[in-house]
Amino acid sequence: xxxxxxxxxxxxxxxxxxxxxxxxxxxxxxxxxxxxxxxxxxxxxxxxxxxxxxxxxxxxxxxxxxxxxxxxxxxxxxxxxxxxxxxxxxxxxxxxxxxxxxxxxxxxxxxxxxxxxxxxxxxxxxxxxxxxxxxxxxxxxxxxxxxxxxxxxxxxxxxxxxxxxxxxxxxxxxxxxxxxxxxxxxxxxxxxxxxxxxxxxxxxxxxxxxxxxxxxxxxxxxxxxxxxxxxxxxxxxxxxxxxxxxxxxxxxxxxxxxxxxxxxxxxxxxxxxxxxxxxxxxxxxxxxxxxxxxxxxxxxxxxxxxxxxxxxxxxxxxxxxxxxxxxxxxxxxxxxxxxxxxxxxxxxxxxxxxxxxxxxxxxxxxxxxxxxxxxxxxxxxxxxxxxxxxxxxxxxxxxxxxxxxxxxxxxxxxxxxxxxxxxxxxxxxxxxxxxxxxxxxxxxxxxxxxxxxxxxxxxxxxxxxxxxxxxxxxxxxxxxxxxxxxxxxxxxxxxxxxxxxxxxxxxxxxxxxxxxxxxxxxxxxxxxxxxxxxxxxxxxxxxxxxxxxxxxxxxxxxxxxxxxxxxxxxxxxxxxxxxxxxxxxxxxxxxxxxxxxxxxxxxxxxxxxxxxxxxxxxxxxxxxxxxxxxxxxxxxxxxxxxxxxxxxxxxxxxxxxxxxxxxxxxxxxxxxxxxxxxxxxxxxxxxxxxxxxxxxxxxxxxxxxxxxxxxxxxxxxxxxxxxxxxxxxxxxxxxxxxxxxxxxxxxxxxxxxxxxxxxxxxx
Length: 763
Description:
By secondary structure, this protein is α/β, with parallel strands linked by helices.
C-alpha cells in the first residue's frame, strides 16, 4: 500500500514519475553531485576538510558553494556543478568518485502483543524497555505535540555520549524537545538546490512534519504510553512504541516535494556523529549500486561504530527482485499482516449476522434499510445508476469484472446509504480507507445474503461499524505490497532478513493532513492513524533492536541482526508455514519473508550468532569485482584495500545459491562460523529440511561448546536440480541445542540466476 494518506497521493505520483528518469544535461547547466574524496590527500595547510573541499572548487568559474560536507557517513561533500566544473574537479588530487544526487522513495495498539512482548518476562523487562537507548529516525520530521512524544516516565538525564541538539525552525521551537524527544535536525539543501527555491517559500525550513510519515514511524519505534488511542473507534487501546522508554532523535530529510540522496546522507552523517545507538530509515533508492546508495554508504560507517541500521524493503511487491536496501550490513525488513481485523457486522431482516471488513470512519446509522440486489445495479459500476435505483437503501455489490476500489468510488459518489461488497481478495485487509458506509464480506457469506435479498419481499439490512477483533484469519502472512528479493544491490546475500507487522498499524498522526474521507467532500482528522507499508514494519524491527542494544550492549551490529534472523518464526498462528497474501496464496519463500516474523523474546537468547567484521564485508565487495575507488566510496579508508581474501561466502545467517538452467544439477558449499552466546556447556545438532526437492547436508553435524564465546566452523552443502525454470527452491538449517532450549534456524534458498542477475544489468 502507498505510504501517504489518500489526500497526499500526488506526492506518491511525483516520486514515482520523477525517480531515476534519465537527465539530459547541457554543459552550462548544473546538477547536484555527491563527491567522494580521499582525505589522506588533504594538504597540511588546511585546518579542516571543509576548507580543503572548498579549495578544490575555487579554480572553477563562478565558484560553487558546497551544500554539505560529510565526515562520518563518508568522506566528501555534495555540490551543484556544471559538466565542465565536474571534469575539472576530477583532476583534483584526492578525488575518488562523483555521482548525481538522486530522488528517493519513502517506502501501535496491538502489534506488540502480536510479537509476544509483555511486562512479566522476556525482552521488555530484560532491556528495561530500552531506557536511555537513542533511536535516530531518518524520515519526514515529527509532530512534537503528539501525546506519543510526551516524556512522562522517562529518564530525565541525557546519555553521556549524546552530542546532538534540538534545532528550531519554521513553526518549530527548540523548547518542544524534552526527555523523550532529545534531538531534532533538518536537511534541505539537496531539495533547495534541485528546486532553486527559498526554504521558507516551500515550507521546508523546520523539522516539523507536514506529511505524517515521520511522526507515524517515530511513534511506532519508541512512542510513549497513550491511553485511549484509536482510529475513529477502531483499534482502541493503549498506544506505545516497541521500545517505549527509548529516546528519539529526529533527522528530517524527506519533504512533501521530494527526497534527495544528498539530504539523506547529511541526516545519516549527523546521526552517527550525534551518537545514536540505532538508526531507523523507512525509505530507499531503487536500482542503486552499493557505492552510490546513501543508506549503504552511511550504514557501513554506522556498523563500524556498533550502530545498527534498520531499513524498509520497499513497497513494490509481490514480484521478485523489487526490493531496495538489500545491503549486507543492514537489517532489511519486509512487511507482514497481523491477526487483527477491523470490521463491522451485517444484520439481515431475518436476524442472520455476518462479519466483514470495514474502516468506515464514523458511527453511521444504517438501520433496517431496504436491501437492494439487481443484476444491472449490483455491478456497482455506475454512480448515476446506483443513485437512481438504490439511493436510500443498502446495495449489494457483486461483480468479478469491477474491482473493489472502483465499486467503492461509485457507491461513494452515488449517495447510497450503505453497501455490502462481496470480495475474496485477501488484500482487502491491507486497505486503510472506506469512504462510504460499507462492509466487505466473503463470497460464501455473500451467497446467503443474495439469496435472502432475492427471496424476501421488503428485504432489509442493518450495518454496525467500528468493531475490532482477532482472527479467524491465518497470521502472519507476507503483505502483497512488501518488496521481494533477490536484492539488485547484492544478490549473494538473502534479503529481506525478516518481516515485521506492517499492515494497518496504528500510530501517531499530524492534524494538518486528513486521515479519512466520507463521501466526495468530507475529510476527517485524527490524532492516531492506520498506515500500511514496509515503512511501518521497519520501526517495529528498529524498536526490537533498541531493546536488544540495552539487553546486550556488548553485541555487534551483525550479532544483533543474526539474533533477530535465527530466532524469527517461519510459522503462522496455526503452526503452518507462513503464506504470501494475494490473489493466489502460497507458501512464502525466503525471498518474501527472509527467515520469518521477528520474535523479540527469543532474540534475547539466541544461543548462537553469526558475527561478521567490516573486513568480511569488504571481502564480499571484492568478490563482486568492485573497483578500489568504489570500495573506498563505501568504506572511506584505504585500510580496506586488500582484496586477497575475496569471497562471496559472507558469514551470514542465511544461504543463497543460484542455478542457470533446470537441466543443470546445482552443488554449492557454504562455510560458516558460529559463536556460542549461551551460558554453560552446550551441544548442538544439525537438523535440515527442504522444499521443492533440495538436498541439504552439514559437516560436522554436531557442535560442542564448553564455554561462552567459543567459535565453531561448519560447512553446508546444497544440492538440487529443478523441475522447471524460474522455480525458487528453499529449505532450512536448524542447530538444535540438546536440551531444547535453543533452536537456531537459517533459511536456505536456490534462485534462478537470470532472475537474480537480470536486475544487476539494469543498475
